[in-house]
């Protein structure tokens, strides 16, 4: 007997689970197959409270942003470590190609606590400017190369490349 892979959770299911979990208490807007969820995150009881925003859309990795406070201001203008974008600050919470997060996983049990963990390491980074959160993050030039390669592959289908 072979078990099938778990089915991906729909946007509506993820949205409902976020609403029901007290850890991800917040509010959001549910659209057709996508949603935006805003919630408060704090890595420790002594930490400040951050306004986080989670965006979910089909065929795209979920994205988490910190809307306030402005993390670049807190860093004194230094580039933030371990982010996809500086402004708006989009956190690097997992490495998509390693399948740390998959569409059947609950966002309220993965990305929401991972946001608090990221913020914990961010606050640590603010004191000594050393990222101790681990992980891997591609350099911007690596991402640019990957994008240009994928564009090249789309322009020239395998059949065209062989000829």
Highlighted features:
single chain; about 160 residues; alpha+beta; 5 helices; about 20% strand; globular
Explain how this protein is built.
- The model is unreliable at 156-163 (pLDDT under 50).
- This protein has five helices and six strands; from the N terminus they run H-E-E-E-E-H-E-E-H-H-H.
- The chain is an alpha+beta fold and 163 residues long.
- The chain has helices at 11-20, 71-74, 111-128, 140-155, 158-162; strands spanning 26-30, 35-41, 50-56, 63-68, 83-85, 89-91.
- The protein has a six-stranded antiparallel beta sheet with strand order 1-2-3-4-6-5.
- The termini are far apart.
- The radius of gyration is 18 Å and the shape is globular.
- It is 33% helix and 19% strand.
How are the SSEs placed, and which strands pair?
Blueprint: H1 11-20, E1 26-30, E2 35-41, E3 50-56, E4 63-68, H2 71-74, E5 83-85, E6 89-91, H3 111-128, H4 140-155, H5 158-162
Antiparallel strand pairs: 1-2, 2-3, 3-4, 4-6, 5-6
